[in-house]
Give the backbone structure.
Amino acid sequence: MKSRLFSGVQPTGNLHIGNYLGALKNFVRLQSSYESIFCIVDLHAITIYQEPVQLRAKNREIAGLFLAAGIDPKLSSIIVQSQVAAHAELAWMLTCVTPIGWLYRMTQFKAKSETIREKSDTQDSIGDGLLQYPVLMAADILLYQAKVVPVGDDQAQHRELTRDIAQRFTSLYGETFVMPETSLPSVGARIMGLDEPDKKMSKSATGAGHAVALLDEPSLIKKKIMRATTDSNPAVDFDTMGPGVANLLAIYQAFDECSDDTMRERFAGMRYGDLKKTVAEKTIEHIEPFQKRYREMMADPAYLDGILKAGAERVQPIAAATVQLVKERMGLYTASR
C-alpha cells in the first residue's frame, strides 16, 4: 500500500508563482507515488477575521487552482477542511493533551500576535484560534494517519509539534497515530519576493511588485518582473550575483527545468533588461495555459462542487476511523459495536 500524503493551503491572499513552483508543481509530481489528500484549510483561515463572501469564493478559487495545476481528482482527494467535521473534533481532543507552553513557543504565534497587537494596541484582539492553530494543523495530519507532509520551512516547527503531540498522546493512551516523517520528499524551488529578494515570496505581502499572482494578466506579469530588484552589476555574473538576480534565474530554471550548466551557458553575461524580458516570457509561457485551464474549471461550478464532494466522501471513512479510535483510547462515549 502507498503511504498517505497530506498537505494544506489556506484560502487567503493570492496564490503566486512561488506557491506553484514551490508546492503545487511538487504536489502534482508526488500524487502518483502516494495516497494524496490536498486540503483547503478554511478553518485555519478564520483564526484571523475573513470576510465571509470572499472566503467562500477563495475556497472555490483554490480548488480551481489545484485542478489547473494538474492535481488529478482520480489520483488525489481535494477537500475543504470545514466540510469534514472530524478535523475540528480531533483538534479539540488533541488540545486537551497539548501543554500550553508548547503553543506559546511557536514562532508564528509570536510574530502574528505582535503584528495584531501593533495594529490594535490591545491583547483582546488576539483570538484563541491563533494560539490553537498548530493543534488544528496536527489534527489535520494525524486525522488521516499521514506519513508524508510536504511543508515549507515556515511550517517546519508546526510539523515537529505534530510529532510531539502524537508522541505525548501515545505516552498517555497508547499507540494511536502514524508518526509523520521528519524527512520529506524533495521540495520545489524557493522563490523570493521580486521587490525584496531576501524574503520568501508571500501571498499576504501588500507590495504591488512583490509577487506574481497565478491569475495576474500577462501584461501585469511582465510589468512586475521588469521592475524586479537586481544588483549593481551591469550583467549576469554567476560568481558575484546579488539575491535579486539569483531569484530571477531561479524562477526561469524552475519553469524550464534546465540544468545548472545550461543556465550558465544561457545567461552568463546577459544584461539585466534582457534577463528580465527572458524570465517574463518564460513565466507567461507557462502561466497562460495554466490560466486557461483554471477558467475552464471555474466555468463549470457543478463539476467543481462534485470534485470537492467526492473528495470529502472519499476521506470520510479514514477520518471517522481515527476519531473513533481516539475516543476509545481516551475513554469517551462510543456506541456499542
